[in-house]
Amino acid sequence: MKIGIIQTIIKWVYQLFTGRKKTSRKTRKPKKGRLVVKQAEAIDGDTIRGIVRGEKVKIRLILVDCPETRHAQKGKQPYGEEAKQFTKRRISQAKLVEVELHGTGAKDKYGRLIGHVFVNGQNLNRLLLKNGYARVAYAYGKYAYEDIYRKAEADAREKRLRIWSMKGYVQEDGFHPEVMPKKDIVADT
Predict the structure, then answer these.
(1) Active-site annotation holder among 34, 60, 135, 162
(2) What confidence category does residue 100 fall into, taking pLDDT thresholds of 50, 70 and 90?
(3) Where is the TNase-like domain (predicted)?
C-alpha cells in the first residue's frame, strides 16, 4: 500500500512541476499502416535514419523540404540547422517513432524510403511546416496529408515564421540565401 501512495505522490509532483501528465513507460503500439522506427535519429530537418523491420534505413519526409545543413553545391543554408535541431529534439524525446510509407515502400533517387513520420502520434512533416522550418515540395501527384501540409505551410507563411520571415528566401525552386542581408547568413567555420 505504501508503494502505491508513493507512486501517486511522485506523479502528482511531476504534474505540478511540469504542467503535464507523466505517460506510461510501456511501449506504444504502432497505428495500423505504420511501421515502427527503432533507434531513430535526425540526419537533417527532412531526413532521419533508424531501423525498420530489422534493416538500417534512411527515411526522407515526403512533401517536405527544409534548408540544407550541408550540401556540396548549396552549402549550409539559413534555418537548416534550426530545422535539424527541431527534428532531432522531436525524435529524441519520442517514445514512439513511426513511418507511414508512400506506396509500397517507394524510395527516392538516393535509396531513401519516403514517407510520413510520426512522433508520439504527431505528424512530424506537418510540424516542420507549421513551425516554419520547411516548405511543401516535390508533389508529383496526389498524396496523403497533402491538404493538411499545404494548410500548415500557408499558416506559417502568413505568420512569417522562420523560412518565411525574409521575402524571396523561399521560392518555387528552393531556398535563396542570396536575398538575405549578409548579417543574417551564418558562415561555415
Answers:
(1) 60
(2) very high
(3) 33-166
> Is 90 exceeded by the pLDDT of residue 9?
no
**Domain range annotation of the chain:** 31-166
Q: Could you tell me if residue 168 is left (phi over 0), alpha (psi between -120 and 50 degrees) or otherwise beta? A: left
| Residue 124 to residues 18, 35, 83, 117, 180, Cα–Cα distance (Å) | 23, 15, 11, 6, 27
98: annotated active-site residue = no
Q: Which three cell numbers stand for residue 123?
A: 505528424
* Pairwise CA distance, residues 117 & 84, whole Å: 14
Q: What pLDDT sits at residue 19?
A: 58
pLDDT of residue 169: 97
Residue of 34, 82, 90, 112 marked active site: 112
Tell me if residue 112 is catalytic.
yes
Q: What is the DSSP letter of 145?
A: T
Q: Which of 10, 105, 125 is nearest to 52 (CA)?
A: 105
- Please report, for residues 4, 130, 132, 152, the alpha-carbon distance to residue 157 in angstroms, rounded to integers and kept in the order given: 49, 9, 7, 9
Residue 28 known to be catalytic: no
- The C-alpha atoms of residue 172 and residue 149 are separated, in whole angstroms, by 16
CATH number assigned to the domain covering 31-166:
2.40.50.90
CA–CA distance, 41 with 87 (Å, rounded to integer): 8
